[in-house]
Amino acid sequence: MVGREITKDDNELIPKLRPQVQVRLADEAGGVAFIKTHNALLMDEGQPVINPAATAGAVYIVRNPLDVVISLSHHRGKPIDETIDFMACEGMRTVIGEKQVYEIWGSWSEHVHSWTRSPHPAIYVMRYEDMLAEPAKTFGGLARHLKMNPSSAELDSALEMSSFESLQAQEKEEGFRERPEAATANFFRSGKSDQWRDVLTASQIDQIVTKHAAQMKRFGYLPD
Questions:
Q1: Maximum CA pair distance of the chain?
Q2: Which pTM was predicted?
Q3: pLDDT digits (tens, 9 = 90+) for 136-171
Q4: What span, in angstroms and rounded, lies between the C-alpha atoms of 123 and 138?
Q5: Is 137 within 8 Å of 117 (Cβ atoms)?
Q6: Which residues pair with 58 in a beta bridge?
Q7: Residue 141 contacts by C-beta under 8 Å, 6 or more apart in sequence?
Q8: In whole angstroms, what is the distance from residue 15 CA to residue 220 CA?
Q9: Domain ranges of the chain
Q10: Class of 36-43+56-218 per CATH?
Q11: Residue 171 · residue 187 · CB < 8 Å
Q12: What is the pLDDT of residues 167-206, one digit of tens each?
C-alpha cells in the first residue's frame, strides 16, 4: 500500500492505511479471510483499528489475567512484577518492528471490555478455560458461529489435530515463527489453567485483582 518498507517514523501513516489494508485483504481472499489480531476493538486517530466494512465477524478468546501474566512474562522474557504493570497500562500500544506495524492492546481490562462490552451476534466470545474443560461444547459452538455443521467425528478429529500436545510436537519438530527471541520458553509452553495458584504470590494476586476486578468478575475469574 505504501510502496516501501514501513519504518518507525510512520506512526501517523498507520491509522489511515490500516482500514484500507483490511479491505484489500478481504477483496483478495476469494472467500472469508481468517486474520489473527492482538488489537483491541478501538479507534486510532479517528480510524477504526478493526474495519467493520471489511469484517464479517470475530472470535474473541478471553483468559484469566492471573494466568495471562505468567504466560506473557515468559513470552516477553520479563519478570512477573513488570508484566503486571505492563498489563495494567491503559492505552498501551506496541512499536513498529521489522515484521509488523504497531498494535493497540490497552490494558487487559481495556482489551476485554472493548470486545465484550455488549453482546454482538457477529462476535463469538470463548473463555480459554472452557476450551480446556469442555472442548467439544466450546468449539462446537464456535463451528456453529462460523456457519459450519461438523459431525461428532469431524469435531473430535479437529480437536485432536489442534490439541496442545499436537502443537507442542509441531513446534519441537518445525519451530514456530511467532515465538519471540526474548521468550524464555517454547511458544506452546503449558496450555493449562490455574497455574497462578502455584506461581503467584499473594501480593501479586492482590495487585492484579485490584486493577482488573470488574472484568474478572464478569468472566468468573475472581479468586475465592
A1: 55
A2: 0.84
A3: 999 999 999 999 999 999 999 988 888 777 776 666
A4: 14
A5: no
A6: 123
A7: 124, 126
A8: 35
A9: 36-43+56-218
A10: alpha beta
A11: yes
A12: 766 666 676 556 555 555 555 555 678 999 999 999 999 9
